[in-house]
Automatic annotation (TrEMBL):
Its cofactor is Mn(2+). Residues 63-216 form the PD-(D/E)XK endonuclease-like domain. This is CRISPR-associated protein Cas4. InterPro entries: Cas4_exonuclease (IPR051827), PDDEXK-like_dom_sf (IPR011604), PDDEXK_AddAB-type (IPR038726). It comes from Saccharolobus caldissimus.
Length: 228
């Protein structure tokens, strides 16, 4: 148990991310709006289970980037900064260090690669690629015009992989911008957004790994009690 305890102790050291007003990360915009609101207004540290989940994702991402770097004809960049000002609102920007993508250049072709780790890829093939993953990559494609996007799903258990090629979609980018605006307005007004993931079949899985689930459910039940 000695080694396990040491690893758990280190995994438990979590710092709460520092958010700046008006700056929104591409990797989070398609999370449940209520969850994003909580994580900015009353943040709590990530649970050990979530930390394990993200740590495995990071390890696999780094392995993929390092493996691609071994290919002589390929140029690889990771942890690239992204900054996309809102087209109409000067107080809003999509920004962050894109440490979840890898830029791969082969000759004159450039690919923006988003690596997503997943449990039981085989049973989820029919749901892939997920809209929120396409939308996230779509933001990066806006920052890297004339690039192709690739979402690479990697099974955490079997290391099976599946890749999807994505092109920039301006309508989806506008949807993303609208989400950023909505979240920004909720935050400015300090108004709690609806429990988006609970109300949307395609997003419900987010509730299973949400640190704010208990708080969110207390809020839902207090709202329903007020109706009687
Ligand atoms: S429990 Fe679900 S609906 Fe509630 S904040 Fe978390 S992800 Fe959103």
């Amino acid at each position: 148990m000695v080694v396990k305890e040491i690893i758990h102790k280190h995994l438990s050291y979590t710092s709460i991310p520092e958010f700046f007003d008006g700056e929104y990360w591409p990797s989070q915009i398609w999370y449940c709006l209520r969850k994003q609101y909580y994580s900015r207004v009353s943040p709590i540290p990530m649970s050990l289970e979530s930390k394990k989940f993200t740590t495995l994702g990071t390890i696999i991402h780094e392995f993929i980037a390092e493996t691609l770097k071994k290919e002589e004809s390929v140029r690889v960049e990771s942890e690239v900064p992204i900054r996309i000002p809102h087209p109409n609102r000067h107080d809003v920007v999509i920004s962050g260090r894109a440490d979840d993508i890898i830029i791969v250049t082969v000759g004159k072709s450039r690919y923006v690669v988003e690596v997503k780790t997943i449990d039981d890829l085989e049973s989820k093939r029919s749901y892939l690629p997920r809209k929120e993953h396409i939308a996230q990559l779509n933001v990066y494609l806006r920052a890297y015009p004339n690039s192709k996007g690739i979402i690479l799903y990697v099974d955490r258990g079997s290391f099976e992989m599946e890749e999807f090629e994505i092109s920039f979609n301006p309508d989806l980018f506008n949807e993303t911008i609208k989400r950023v605006e909505m979240l920004h307005d909720y935050l400015i007004k300090r108004e709690l957004p609806p429990p988006e993931a609970k109300e949307n079949q395609d997003m419900k899985w987010q509730c299973d790994i949400c640190e704010y689930r208990a708080k969110c459910e207390r809020q839902i039940s207090s709202n329903s009690n007020k109706k009687f």
